[in-house]
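This week, look over our next protein:
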Amino acid sequence: VVYYRAGYTPNDYPSDAEWRARELVEKSRSFVCPSTATQLVGAKKMQEVLAREGVLEKFVSNREDAARMRATFAGLYALDESEAGQKIVAEALQHPERYVLKPQREGGGNNLYDSDLVQALQTMNAQQRGT
């Protein structure tokens, strides 16, 4: 049994050795939790992409089912340098009480709220916001 408490960020794989170890485990007969597929689906970026109009429909053929699923999603926004990314950052800085900044980490203990969210957005560079 392999249970990952790390391996959720690129920083967890600083060299080819870590990637080779992960590949070895994934190809083994071990029970792995989470699997690579499950870990990827749990990534904030994957959730953001699946929430976009038309993407979920590629995997759920019934449009009504897809609409019902999408109705349960929380808002997920890219913080990149696109026009939409800049707009959401400005909105979050003006109304931080409406947002939660969720880094790609295990569990929810790393979320940022209110003034902590504002401070993080003001100090992050474009590259940090885009990852």
User: Anything to note?
Assistant: The chain has a mean pLDDT of 88.
